[in-house]
Amino acid sequence: MLNMFYLWLPNNKNKMGRSLFPIILVCSFFITAFSCSNKASKSRKPVSSITVLPKKSNYVFGEKVSINVKTKVKNGEIETVKVYYNSQLIKESPELDFNVDDIEISRIGKSNITVEPIKKDGVKNTRTKAISVISDIVPKTYSYKIVNVYPHSKEYYTQGLEYYDGFLYEGTGEHGTSGLFKVNLKSAKELKAHRLDDKYFGEGITILNNKIYQLTYRAQKGFVYNLSDFAVLDSFQFKGEGWGLTNDGTNLIMSNGTNVLSWLKPDDFSVVKTVEVADNKELIYQLNELEIINGNIFANLYTTEKIVEIEPETGRVLSEVSFPGIINMYHKPNDRIDYMNGIAYDESTERIFITGKLWPKLFEVELIPPAN
């Protein structure tokens, strides 16, 4: 049409031609703008909302809940909406508003509910809601009695403690004094020692298949030693901080100061699984030195005089025992003592040993279950 208009116009010297030329430019602009505005709009992502019922700040392990999903679509149509509980698909529906009922909460700690709406043109989106899950068990409260008191080096900043084949093994911390030690239980005499480089802050230890494994604090590095002579056999990397270490006869079990325990393969140190820890009131953080006793995991809670017993399959706290002031009458006023840390178990005699960082004593204790 514009080409025809130009053919009709006189030459540029004509006055009418000069006056119509700006009009033609304006018309051309509007025609172009109008044609652009009629292009297909970009497909927008659908958006879902997630409501967990009943609404709570903490849910309980084993509890059943309902999930309501509502999805909004700006343009186009929904093909399907997928709902996941901890990455497991639990429902798929073409509806925009629906419920998923009787979902059993099967994991302690932080659980994720994820919704993925997908449109017919393939455009999709995700929305995740995290919920906090505590234990359904009220932990038993144990008391204790002291069976024996043994000497302990006031130089050992105890981070790992292990009883094996008649001897104590200790991993110690602090820069410049970290190391690995084999010790006579009754005399506290040092029988074998390996010092870490000053740049490392030693942490938990465990013995598995005639090897000793030792963590370090923030270097994200661990060491593997030959049990008999402490020769360094290997080193390994891990993510995050290293705190406590034990094993279940197959895998290493590691704490990192949070409420998470990680199972690691002892050959390539890949993560097999993780478990979060909680009692019936809250998630339990600052899990420190670890020990397996009768199949369950016992853990020091950092900055406290409390030990908790954890079910390894679920992370539920089964029992707890406090040792308030156990060291008080066994150290001098000017002794530099630090927090309680260190649990060792003699499986052959069922003896339990506890100590602390820089404590001058190590205690053999008997745990006494509640009367009821």
Structural summary, described in words:
- With 372 residues, this protein is mainly beta.
- The chain is 8% helix and 49% strand.
Helix content: under 10%
Q: What is the number of strand segments?
A: 28
Shape: elongated
Query: What structural category arises from helix and sheet content?
Result: mainly beta
Brief characterization of the structure:
By secondary structure, the chain is mostly beta strands. It is 8% helix and 49% strand. It folds into two domains: 47-133, Sandwich (Immunoglobulin-like), CATH 2.60.40; 140-368, TolB, C-terminal domain (Neuraminidase), CATH 2.120.10.30.
List the helices and strands and how they pair.
Layout: H1 2-8, H2 15-37, E1 47-53, E2 59-60, E3 64-72, E4 78-85, E5 88-93, E6 97-104, E7 109-119, E8 127-134, E9 140-151, E10 158-164, E11 167-172, E12 179-183, E13 190-195, E14 202-208, E15 211-216, E16 221-226, E17 232-237, E18 245-247, E19 252-255, E20 260-264, E21 271-276, E22 287-293, E23 296-301, E24 306-310, E25 317-322, E26 340-346, E27 351-356, E28 361-368
Parallel strand pairs: 2-8, 9-25
Antiparallel strand pairs: 1-3, 3-6, 4-5, 4-7, 7-8, 9-28, 10-11, 11-12, 12-13, 14-15, 15-16, 16-17, 18-19, 19-20, 20-21, 22-23, 23-24, 24-25, 26-27, 27-28
Give keywords.
372 residues; mainly beta; Immunoglobulin-like; Neuraminidase; eight-stranded mixed β-sheet; 8% helix; elongated; disordered N terminus
